[in-house]
């Protein structure tokens, strides 16, 4: 058993429930991860409220697509991973199928990357949604090249801060990270939806 955040109806942060659930064993192509930190994203708030491009298919529903932790069990056919390795989970799967708001979570191995020793769990849970979003918008969609002048709006958001890094100017100061414990998930979602945060919101998991 492990604690996991689920919701049984659409709505605001108040519908989130911290529940004991059976974790199970990873199937072919999957990994079981001990989750140490979870990155919160607005896409998850939209999914929880029924306003995301992907709609909830059944209840109780899971949540979460970005996390960092340690591999516990390797499913059949998975290569390149072994128990004890530090990893990050990237947002590359349906939340109808998987969710990382939990103490332990089964995830597709294709959505897991090795986490270097220089990156702690909080950082490892915070970088995967903002940076690909910023890079894709600036370079792949916007065609940004060396020497271009770039104007960034909402520059204090997690994607905005990642965009600043992608454009290459010198930085002054350090982005703030807002950490909450997993049992504070409702308050963390309320804080995210208030729109006043600077940087990424990360939930830590005590084991």
From TrEMBL:
<dbReference type="GO" id="GO:0070402">
    <property type="term" value="F:NADPH binding"/>
</dbReference>
<dbReference type="InterPro" id="IPR020843">
    <property type="entry name" value="ER"/>
</dbReference>
<dbReference type="GO" id="GO:0016651">
    <property type="term" value="F:oxidoreductase activity, acting on NAD(P)H"/>
</dbReference>
<keyword id="KW-0560">Oxidoreductase</keyword>
<feature type="domain" description="Enoyl reductase (ER)">
    <location>
        <begin position="11"/>
        <end position="203"/>
    </location>
</feature>
<protein>
    <submittedName>
        <fullName>Alcohol dehydrogenase catalytic domain-containing protein</fullName>
    </submittedName>
</protein>
<dbReference type="InterPro" id="IPR013154">
    <property type="entry name" value="ADH-like_N"/>
</dbReference>
<keyword id="KW-0521">NADP</keyword>
<dbReference type="InterPro" id="IPR011032">
    <property type="entry name" value="GroES-like_sf"/>
</dbReference>
<dbReference type="Pfam" id="PF08240">
    <property type="entry name" value="ADH_N"/>
</dbReference>
